[in-house]
């Protein structure tokens, strides 16, 4: 142990209070486990855009400095970046930081790089999602040469290497420990197919709806639920109506995380047809709650008896039929433990500033 370490963690959003469990759940879980397991590491969170307020507050004994960015466009966004830089430097003057860590290769990383240069501290940046892809315009302006670059999965590391010709120095996956209670059995799960996520083009829940239609054409009626909201919701509802599936496919909108996990305990199969994920925390949640997972080969996806990889509607439909005809177990499966994540972060912070 190298003694107490103080880290400024910059993120686009953070829970506004301890009851806000839907804002980046894997980060919430990781920070709470890190605090318990490595109390010598003290995190100060800088929330760039959400919550859209300015008064500092406490979250599970962590200090949070919101700067009220509100996800505004340029040039107003620049004011939030300047406020974040000033907030970090003011806190550093009283309680010096040992490193600056930014989540996402976007405006958070730009602030992190800038302030790390101003205060002479190591800079860490983590690839979190589609920020690894060439469509991320911030990558044109981010000087990452001296940064420690991490990712949440091997696939995300490969993706960012294809974009900036540099893989992550370290992969720290999101951990989730299963509940101590055994998940319900197969026959106690009335929902056949479940989809969870933002209703966007990338998540492609059209493929889930078409899978339900394909199964029905084969004489297999499946009760299907989709949880989430987004710009594609109206179009998806139109597809359900057009395909005559209104009695079997239901879009439930955005739900609190506790209700999402409750639905998982009542569902047999998670279909996640997303075209890209850096990790896909929904996979860990589904497996921890006894579900079988069908997905494209994205993020943390790995083929196993409880996880089938598919690329087409026909493949998804065939995998559903095989799973329903020969049900697997519903015991909890853990992809990565919360301790693995906490220990990975602790090692990252304790070695910040050492040669890569």
CATH superfamily of the largest domain: Glycogen Phosphorylase B
Number of domains: 2
Please tally the β strands and state the result. 14
pLDDT under 50 segments (min length 5)?
none
If you consult CATH, what is the topology of the largest domain? Rossmann fold
Order of SSEs: EHEEEHEHEEHEEHEHEHEHEEHH
Backbone shape: elongated
> Helix/strand/pairing class, anyone?
alpha/beta
Strand content: 15-25%
Task: Describe the model.
With 356 residues, the protein is an alpha/beta fold. The chain folds into two domains: 5-175 and 337-350, Glycogen Phosphorylase B (Rossmann fold); 186-325, Rossmann fold, CATH 3.40.50. The chain has ten helices and 14 strands. It has helices at residues 25-37, 76-94, 107-119, 154-164, 205-217, 233-242, 257-265, 281-288, 313-325, 338-350; strands at residues 5-13, 41-50, 57-59, 62-66, 99-103, 123-127, 148-151, 170-171, 191-196, 224-227, 249-253, 267-272, 292-295, 307-309. The strands form two sheets. It has an eight-stranded mixed β-sheet, sandwiched between helices. It has a six-stranded parallel β-sheet with strand order 11-10-9-12-13-14, sandwiched between helices. β7, α4 (154-164) and β8 form a beta-alpha-beta unit. α5 (205-217) crosses α9 (313-325). The longest helix is centred in the N-terminal third of the chain and has 19 residues, at 76-94. The chain is elongated.
